[in-house]
Amino acid sequence: MTSKVDEALSYEQARDELIEVVRRLEAGGTTLEESLALWERGEELAKVCRRWLEGARARLDAALAEEEGEDAERDGE
């Protein structure tokens, strides 16, 4: 479950931290326990990023639908 702190992260903050987590995992040299903790953190950060992107998509879809509705009203006049 995502913490309140994670929910307060901006998309860019979550993305940048996720990039760092992936870099550390790819570099190796961590213990199994550290690797698991990094992987779990990465999963949480990915969820934060996904929520931001889904929200952005919903806003874009709503704006496009509104614009199409306005165009339809103008064409019907």
TrEMBL record:
Signal peptide: none annotated. It is an enzyme of class 3 (hydrolase). One of its GO terms (molecular function) is exodeoxyribonuclease VII activity. It is found in: Cytoplasm. Pfam families: Exonuc_VII_S. Keywords: Cytoplasm, Exonuclease, Hydrolase, Nuclease. It comes from the Bacteria. The keyword Cytoplasm applies. It catalyses: Exonucleolytic cleavage in either 5'- to 3'- or 3'- to 5'-direction to yield nucleoside 5'-phosphates. InterPro entries: Exonuc_VII_S, Exonuc_VII_ssu_sf. Its main location: cytoplasm. The keyword Nuclease applies. Its EC number is 3.1.11.6. Bidirectionally degrades single-stranded DNA into large acid-insoluble oligonucleotides, which are then degraded further into small acid-soluble oligonucleotides. Belongs to the XseB family. Heterooligomer composed of large and small subunits. This is Exodeoxyribonuclease 7 small subunit. It comes from Streptomyces tricolor. The lineage of its organism: Bacteria, Bacillati, Actinomycetota, Actinomycetes, Kitasatosporales.
